[in-house]
Write a structure and sequence with these properties.
The complex is a heterodimer of chains A (661) and B (155). Chain A has 25 helices and 22 strands. With 661 residues, chain A is an alpha+beta fold. Chain A folds into 5 domains: 136 residues, Four Helix Bundle (Hemerythrin (Met), subunit A); 125 residues, Histidine kinase CheA-like, P2 response regulator-binding domain (Alpha-Beta Plaits, 2-Layer Sandwich); 56 residues, Helix Hairpins (Orthogonal Bundle); 171 residues, Heat Shock Protein 90 (2-Layer Sandwich), CATH 3.30.565; 128 residues, CheA-289, Domain 4 (OB fold (Dihydrolipoamide Acetyltransferase, E2P)), CATH 2.40.50. In chain A, the strands form 5 sheets. Chain A has a 6-stranded mixed β-sheet. Chain A is globular and about 105 Å long. With 155 residues, chain B is of the alpha+beta class. Chain B has a single domain, classed as CheA-289, Domain 4 (OB fold (Dihydrolipoamide Acetyltransferase, E2P), Beta Barrel). In chain B, the strands form 2 sheets. In chain B, strands 8-1-2-11-10-9 form a 6-stranded mixed β-sheet. Chain B has a 5-stranded mixed β-sheet with strand order 3-6-7-5-4. Chain B is globular, with a radius of gyration of 16 Å. Chain B starts with a helix and ends with a helix. The chains are: A alpha+beta (661), B alpha+beta (155). At the A-B interface, helix 13, helix 24, strand 21 and strand 22 of A face strand 4 and strand 5 of B.
């Protein structure tokens, strides 16, 4: 009987990625501190689960590789092999391979890859340093090898001794379930039930819980104390179907206590992992398709909209009872909105977690010493933003390490610490999230930037002389700009900061650069907390109403026609000492009929660091709006970010300040 | 009793050899679209114009919370609008991944057209591009231009 597993593929991929994520993170921890037993345990657990999952799904190459990884890892755990850089490197390589295979599975549904070279290295590692230990082990316990897999702490041994004194026998039972058995956990349960008729299972590998949840390969082992004989047990277990082989072996209690050193060490591992396990189990989660959340968000948006309409009716009709009810609905819908938004929020950790590894590899390739710090990884962002923000950050980090940081020699010459520091920082501020990539490198060499820009024909020699430092740095975002003199594998492949900027802007975000020569560079990305519901300023122009996202509005002011001056054919006003270019919103939108009055309302909006004034006919007020897409037919019109349905049922358009002018 | 039976027969017959269309007027001409793509027919709602869009985009409307773009076929096909404002309707189409509407001067009826009555055409009719037309149907003495609405909206 073969069941179609494809329906589980999504779950498999998602979970595998999660495990790979934790594997990656823990590996880095382990590399920093080879004595970190918790990390090692976590890595082992991740590899083990991956093995189980992949063999269930029939991805044999994946299962095989993880199996060999697990072998080495288990030796590391037991202290039989030392945790050194060679071992960690090979595990990193295996990790990369696992990632490749899983990517392949994601793309075409099957992951076959020849991993023999990695496997043979793993085998060598295991055999090489392990040879001596293995022979000793075998002398002690013939023919079984349970000591390798089972570990007993003092408590266990006391229990076992107690059992022996009461004429119980101790058995080690290995059960192999048929390869294509679909309900392994049930078989395991039946085995437990059969042997526990006149005894008790003291220990099992994997744990009873994992067995219960089916998180194991086709085999498991148990330690049983029982009054039954080997024959009895064999007979009983033989009656359970879908079981391949049963191996029952009686254990002599004295052998167990004869290895106090390992027992002690194992004891430590067990206790530390126990304390880690207990709090983690408490949190229960449900995986939800993101589409459903989007749908929920839409419905809540609709509700908020109709609530607005109700409020209007309520205020014009002045019915006490109605108003009370509306207030209630208002409160509930506000809460509901907050909850739905929260549900969509994901800690940025998800994105950040993959960076330490990347930075480590980069630093290695470039032969630079980098200390990489992450701050605020618990900061939460809307899921849609999280999905998009990874690539721009990769680019900025690469830039920071490749272009930003100097080599160790240069740093020493300049009197800086030999090790460069790169900080990735996320924090909330109001309705925005700020992500910063900070390096203590050489800063941006503006002269080089300008020379390069002239060379590339982006600016002329004349322009170059007049550029301020800020303007020169702005040039970095020009398309096709790359300051690295040598095209390296890391960055400088022609795809530059302009791509980063475009991406950030498409997320309604902004990017700033702050660079001090000789001291370092900081890129700051400012992103809205969510893209679905925002605060907006409603304005009217030519009898039409538009919404301007409040995040782009700096202030509003009223001017008279005589305030307007002309500079190079451009209308400007002086606003607190600085020159503000003025545009008529009607003209920008190519709609005619904007009235020319003596008194004019001006909305001061900001695009990156530039301010302009938009002349509108009147200001209506601030409103919470639910953004809706204009759809495929109308998408991509510059200056328009989307639409909203106003309380009166009319559609209003949302202006996109960044692409408006 | 007999009538019901007849109707049933006609329905099963229609699946292969007939299509149902919504017939409407644009200017002085009669047009039709396959009813399978039609989601609903609405009175002309408040249309919000969309600046910077192509000229034949009339604007967008709110249809129960959905934002629907409205195409003005008069402008697209260079036809003069005719008839009573009261008779104007919006026909809303639903495709796999988008919705859109067109403004018509009057919706006349829902018709069944026999496939043999539809003449495929490669010729250009007036200002309408040939690929926007699925064919021309003869119903009694009337000529109905069968529009390929998906193609029109996509272009």
């Amino acid at each position: 009987m073969k069941m179609d597993m494809s329906q589980y593929l999504d779950v498999f991929l998602e979970e595998s990625k999660e495990h790979l994520g934790s594997l990656n993170q823990r590996l880095i921890e382990l590399e920093k501190d080879p004595g970190n037993i918790e990390a090692l345990n976590e890595i082992f657990r991740a590899a083990h689960t991956l093995k189980g999952m992949s063999s269930t799904m029939g991805f044999d190459d994946l299962a095989d590789l993880t199996h060999h990884m697990e072998n080495v890892l288990s030796d590391l755990k037991e202290g039989i092999l030392p945790v050194n850089s060679a071992v960690i490197d090979i595990i990193f390589q295996c990790f990369d391979r696992l990632q490749m295979i899983i990517d392949q599975i994601e793309v075409n549904g099957s992951g076959t890859m020849d991993n023999s070279e990695l496997i043979s290295i793993l085998e060598n590692i295991k055999a090489g340093d392990f040879e001596a230990a293995a022979t000793i082990e075998q002398e002690i316990s013939t023919p079984g090898t349970y000591q390798e897999s089972f570990t007993f702490n003092e408590y266990d041994i006391t229990v076992l001794k107690e059992a022996v004194s009461q004429n119980y026998n101790i058995y080690n039972i290995k059960v192999v379930i048929e390869q294509n058995c679909l309900m392994k956990s049930v078989r395991a349960f039946m085995v437990f039930k059969a042997v526990e008729e006149d005894g008790e299972v003291i220990k099992s590998l994997p744990s009873a819980q994992d067995l219960d949840e089916g998180k194991f390969d086709n085999d498991f082992e148990i330690i049983l104390i029982s009054t039954a004989t080997v024959d009895d047990l064999e007979k009983r277990l033989g009656n359970i179907s879908e079981i391949n082989t049963i191996h029952i072996q009686e254990i002599n209690i004295n052998e167990l206590s004869s290895k106090p050193v390992i027992t002690n060490k194992v004891n430590n591992i067990m206790s530390s992992s126990d304390t880690m396990d207990s709090p983690r189990k408490v949190k229960q989660t449900v995986r939800v398709d993101i589409d459903r959340l989007d749908n929920l968000m839409n419905l809540v948006g609709e509700l908020v909209m109709h609530k607005g309409r109700l409020e209007q009716i309520g205020s014009s009709n002045k019915i006490g009872e109605l108003n009370e009810t509306i207030e209630q609905i208002d409160r509930i819908s506000t809460d509901l909105q907050a909850v739905v938004m929260k549900v969509r929020m994901v800690p940025i950790e998800q994105v950040f977690n993959r960076f330490p590894r990347m930075v480590r590899d980069l630093a290695r390739d470039l032969d630079k010493e980098v200390e990489f710090l992450i701050e605020g990884k618990e900061t939460e962002l809307d899921r849609t933003v999280i999905d998009e923000i990874g690539d721009p950050l990769v680019h900025l980090l690469r830039n920071a390490i490749d272009h930003g940081l100097e080599t160790s020699q240069e740093r020493l010459k300049k009197g800086k610490p030999q090790q460069g520091t790169v900080i990735l920082r996320a924090r909330h501020e109001g309705n925005n999230v700020f992500i910063e990539v900070d390096d203590d490198g050489g800063g941006i060499d503006t002269e080089q930037v300008i020379a390069r820009a002239v060379e590339k024909g982006i600016i002329t020699d004349r322009d170059a002389e007049q550029l301020s430092r800020e303007e020169a740095i702005e040039l970095l975002f020009d398309s096709g700009f790359s300051t690295a003199r040598n095209v390296t594998d890391i960055s400088g492949r022609g795809v530059g900061l302009d791509v980063v900027k475009t991406k950030i802007e498409s997320l309604s975000g902004e990017i700033f650069v702050d660079s001090k020569p000789g001291q370092g560079t900081r890129f700051t990305i400012k992103l809205p907390l969510t893209l679905a519901i925002i605060q907006a300023l409603m304005v009217s122009v030519c009898d039409e109403i538009y919404a301007i996202p409040l995040s782009s509005v700096d202030e509003t002011t009223m001017i008279t026609a005589s305030d307007i001056k002309m500079v190079q054919n451009q209308e400007v006003i002086m606003l607190r000492g600085s020159v503000l270019p003025l545009y008529r919103l009607g003209e920008l939108l190519l709609i005619s009929g904007q009235s020319d009055t003596d008194e004019m309302y001006v909305v001061v909006v900001r695009k990156a660091e530039k301010q302009i004034g938009l002349v509108v006919d009147s200001l209506i007020g601030q409103q919470e709006i639910v953004i809706k897409s204009l759809g495929r037919l109308l998408g991509g019109i510059p200056g328009l970010a989307g639409a909203i349905v106003a309380g009166d049922g009319h559609v209003r358009l949302i202006l996109d300040i960044i692409t408006l002018f | 009793m007999e009538e019901t039976v007849n109707l049933d027969l006609r329905d099963s017959y229609s699946q292969d050899d007939e299509i149902q269309v919504v017939a409407f007027n644009l200017g002085k001409e009669e047009y039709a679209v396959d009813i399978l793509n039609v989601q609903e027919i609405e009175r002309v709602l408040n249309i919000t114009r969309v600046p910077r869009s192509t000229n034949y985009i009339e604007g967008v409307v709110n249809l129960r919370g959905n934002i629907i773009p409205i195409i003005n076929l008069h402008k697209k096909f260079n036809l003069q609008a005719e008839g009573n404002e009261e008779e104007k309707r919006i026909i809303v189409f639903q495709f796999d991944d988008f919705k859109a509407g067109i403004i018509v001067d009057e919706v006349s009826e829902v018709l069944r057209l026999g496939k043999e009555d539809i003449e495929e055409t490669g010729k250009v009719y007036g200002s309408i591009n040939a690929e926007h037309i699925k064919g021309v149907a003869k119903v009694d003495s009337r000529l109905l231009i069968l529009l390929d609405i998906f193609n029109i909206l996509e272009s």
